[in-house]
Amino acid sequence: MLKSKTCHLKFALLAISHLLGEKSGKRIGMKLNIAVIDAEILNKMATTKYKTLRLILGDQLNINHSWFKKVDDTITYVMMEVRTETDYVQHHIQKVIGIFASMQSFAKLLQKHKHKVIYIKLNDKNNLQSFDKNCDLLILQNNFTNFEYQLSDEFRVDEHLNQYAKSLAIPSSVIDTEHFYSSRNELGNLFEGKKMYLMETFYRYMRKKHHILIVDGDKPLHGKWNFDEDNRQKLPKNHKPTTPLLFLNDVTEIETEIKKAKVKTIGTVKATHFLWPINRDQSLQLLDFFVKECLPLFGTFQDAMAPNEWSLYHSRLSFSMNIKLISPQEVVNRAVFEYNKRPEEIEYNQLEGFVRQIIGWREYMRGIYWLKMPEYGALNYFEHTEKLPDWFWTGKTKMNCLKNAIAQSLEFAYAHHIQRLMITGNFALLAGVNPNEVDAWYLGIYIDAFEWVEITNTRGMSQFADGGIVGSKPYVSSATYINKMSSYCTGCYYDKAKKTGDKACPFNSLYWNFYDKHESKLAKNPRIGMMYNVWRKMQPNAKAELLEQADYYLKHINEL
Ligand code: FAD
Ligand code: DLZ
Ligand code: SF4
User: Fold this and answer.
1) Which residues' Cβ are closer than 6 Å to ligand 1?
2) Residue 52 half-sphere exposure, CB side, CA atoms within 13 Å?
């Protein structure tokens, strides 16, 4: 447990500041003239009760946190719906609703357990619409003598709260969220002095450290660390995936409040049938559904895509995990337990693939985030400057793969990994879109999008804007890959087999255009060299036609 004390002025000074009547709206941390303290004030001070204000953010809904182990009437928890958070990016309506609904039910749960909770709703009269201003007001109004918060997962909020805590006249302390397997700096320490970061190295380290799927001290179960070669098949024709478990939460009141406040959002919601889990019980139900119904085919169809199948065998647990309704440990342990219970039904490759996503990729992305921020947020290796096409906000494109991936993102605030990486991300990279634009879209549209995991996936893995910190090569493809992993191309306006001419699939020419444009940056990459051999051997007129086709598509991008 990480706990650091920051105490800038003695605790007594806060009490003095209140007693001196400093309720003029100024930050209570302002310096006091100690000479003005008189005996009467000192007497009043002696009777001031020690009272703590604890801030809980919207993605810190961890009921198993040590904060809540015992009930203490000198402690008050505060949760708040604020415009700084609803407006730092344009979010999907389901994301804002999902967070508010989960926050409200978490506050009720704390109250049920007899904790003291102040919950500030979006349209409350006294809501000053930011963490610091609301906390300032509460500290003044209630004479809190101590401020505590949990480490934020996002750099922006982390800086804000650190500054805020420093500016206070009362003592403050920060505590870990007690959620992740690894600490913020663990990845940085593991790779210290190394030139490259490798997920596989980190993953093996995590397996051994936490003794997950390990035998004989430090050996991987079943003799291999990675069983991906058994995974990743296309969905067979006529295969009907399991129907996803959807909740039927009525969140109409929350939707009304968000609309009343005129928060700008994207996407749609069925507020009487809100499908995402909004509390721990529902998150555990979803986990149960996943291990029973989806885990047996999770790895097999992990990369598959099909029109109108929006979640296939994916767990859809990222939202619950990211707001900490459930922990990654619970998810991994439950999956391992199910595998041990049903070894005939669940092959090992399904389980290993799933565990790798959570103790590998999820923790790895977070480690890179804390190692590389804030510089990471400005990286643009290819110096891309284009805007996202307008149809990223409507799904109205003739490209069937993009139409499906975007339409389902607007409808469900969800797309699975390969849709994010190889459909929308692939296109944005091939089209030379500015990573800031791409980041803002991903950070807004997905219900599970929080910067620590969004930016490393988007700017890093998907856009290669970090020049190879997260991934060793850019994830781009022509129609060949999309057709291999999906059935989108059947029924598409464009022809997957055509590179140029009428109805040629845009991915085909944009793919070669990308390699041509970035030859100086990519040709030396050993994982890409082969592509450049193919490109160089192509007839000059074939190359020119491809580049001309790509140029035409890029100039008419909004009409594709
Ligand atoms: P499953 O396929 O069931 O996987 C299980 C769990 O593994 C997920 O819940 C997630 O916690 C974890 N996981 C899998 N892949 C990754 C990964 N690459 N990075 C981190 N964790 C992973 N994930 C987010 O949680 N938030 C984001 O904002 C986000 N943005 C992304 C942006 C892009 C461009 C890409 C390519 C990926 C992004 N991901 C993000 C990773 C991944 O796509 C999602 O975690 C996953 O789709 C969530 O759905 P699921 O819970 O059904 O995942
Ligand atoms: C994403 C989000 C939104 C939309 N609204 C709130 C909010 O009103 N109050 C809150 O405490 N948290 C919200 N969040 C989540 C925060 O943005 C998140 O806690 C930070 O990004 C830190 O990870
Ligand atoms: Fe996408 Fe091209 Fe296939 Fe159409 S043909 S679905 S645009 S890859």
Assistant:
1) 314-318, 321-322, 357-358, 361-362, 365, 416-417, 420-421, 425, 442, 446, 448-449, 453-454, 457-458, 461-462
2) 17
